Queue: 2 jobs
Job 1
Amino acid sequence: MSALLYSAELWPLTVTQKKKLEAAHRRFQRRLLGITWRDKIRNEEIRRQTRLKTYLELIIKQRRLRWFGHVLRMDDDRIPKQAIS
């Protein structure tokens, strides 16, 4: 999952990109369980079985907040800190 979201805290996501990421995430979960779309199993059931977070958007928001915390603690001469000042 981390390879899929590499540097996600810096991505400016559009609605279309969010939908594509969610679809890819569901596809990966189904593949993990060996379930195809023909099996007619709901996404909620897949999420329950994999015990993964519900939405990638929440994961990305958490990563952004974590990154922001790092930036706030940086020295004032660092470029990311200067960019938000």
Job 2
Amino acid sequence: MIKLELLGGVKKAVGRSSVILEEASLPICEILTLLRRNVKEPEVLTPNNILIAVNGVEASSLDGTDTVVESGDTVTIVTVAHGG
């Protein structure tokens, strides 16, 4: 079981603050693909618009979207805030 915590615009796009995936392991890119299937604005879930952490560690310091998430892990996904 993989727990997804969704914050900000991701939460709004998906319509929930969390999602449980029953898979034993998945790369982040496949998790994003699964999430995109059920949202009205899939562009919210592009890697340039979000920050992803696996167990509190930012995914870009791991293997980016190729990072494999295992059962028991928590993935936090939040939209990047743009100002200006």
